[in-house]
Specification:
By secondary structure, the chain is α/β, with parallel strands linked by helices. It contains 14 helices and nine strands. It binds nicotinamide-adenine-dinucleotide. The site of nicotinamide-adenine-dinucleotide (NAD) has 28 residues, from helix 4, strand 7 and helix 7.
């Protein structure tokens, strides 16, 4: 018998992910701030409701997919929040990318109410969400991970428990560091190649087949070629993630010299009003620096 699911946060990721659970046969009740996203859930066969309390009241599993730590705290705490309104024994899975410390604190606060928590941030982007091939990095108790595995397998392809509460978020922070540096490297190569007069399509084709090939290069290729910076993954969110990894690395004494520079470039792009663009728009920063 499949657990009933409450889904909070139906954005770029939450909408297609919740639809994959519906396709897999789960009953999904959802709440989010935009009416059009609630309509989309209804059209997909889910149940849209008007509050968090209503969404979580009868749920066995509650999934949150909201932008950042403050939104996770807003949906979890307070009289209208998840912890106050979910039934004891429910499992809360936060799939947002947030500060590891916020996940640890959430697990502690929830345990006091008999609610179990996993942090389970994801990688793979909108395409990975749509195709249910996300990489899911999980922190929390092994038994809760085992219980949640069928739900994770309806959403992703690579599902790994990384350790105790917060460790999924720590791994996600590392993921965001690698992705940002990789995008920056690709953007620098694109500008260099174009200024050199080399055919960019041919160059990216052959680069993709060698050691320089990467998921970033494959997935962002068309963004680079067409200067198509519709999100995808917004610079605002990657700025948030560079802050998370910078703080977490400083706390443990890990040096991120290149990551720190890329964090500054992401911040600069945002300061120039491009926070709503896809993170492949780091290309714009390199173009500006190159006088393109
Ligand atoms: P989004 O902005 O498209 O969606 C966020 C959703 O959260 C919105 O629908 C909004 O209504 C909802 N929300 C915010 N505050 C709320 C509240 N108080 N109550 C109810 N709903 C609320 O963001 P997204 O791109 O879907 O990203 C969600 C999370 O997933 C972020 O942490 C992001 O870093 C992470 N992520 C995104 C991607 C990507 O490619 N977009 C990939 C991996 C991870």
């Amino acid at each position: 018998d499949r657990p009933s699911i409450a889904w909070i946060g139906l954005g770029i990721m939450g909408s297609p992910m919740s639809e994959n659970l519906i396709k897999a046969g789960y009953d999904v009740t959802g709440f989010t701030l935009e009416q059009d996203k609630l309509d989309r859930l209804t059209a997909a066969g889910g149940t849209a409701v008007g509050s968090i309390a209503e969404a979580v009241r009868d749920a066995d599993v509650i999934i949150t997919m909201v932008p950042a730590s403050p939104q996770v705290e807003a949906v979890a705490y307070g009289p209208e929040g998840i912890l106050e309104n979910a039934r004891p024994g429910a499992l809360l899975i936060d799939m947002s990318s947030i500060t590891p410390g916020t996940s640890v604190e959430l697990a502690r606060a929830a345990a006091a109410r008999g609610i179990r928590v996993l942090d389970a941030p994801v990688s793979g982007g909108e395409a990975g969400a749509v195709e249910a091939v996300l990489s899911i990095m999980v922190g929390g108790e092994q038994a809760d991970f085992d219980a949640a595995r069928p739900v994770f397998e309806a959403l992703g392809r690579t599902v790994v428990r990384c350790g105790p509460h917060g460790s999924g978020q720590t791994v996600k922070a590392a993921n965001q560091l690698i992705v940002a540096v990789n995008i920056q490297a690709c953007a620098e190569a694109v500008v260099f190649l174009e200024k050199s007069g080399v055919d960019l399509t041919a160059a990216l084709d052959v680069l993709a087949g060698g050691l320089a090939g990467s998921t970033v290069l494959a997935r962002k290729r068309d963004n680079f070629l067409g200067r198509d910076f519709r999100p995808g993954f917004r610079i605002d969110l990657h700025h948030k993630d560079m802050g998370i990894v910078t703080d977490a690395a400083r706390a443990v004494g890990a040096a991120l010299p290149v990551g720190a520079v890329v964090a500054q470039l992401v911040a600069s792009l945002r300061a120039q009003g491009d926070g709503g663009l896809d993170h492949s728009a780091l290309l714009r920063t390199v173009e500006r620096l190159s006088g393109s």
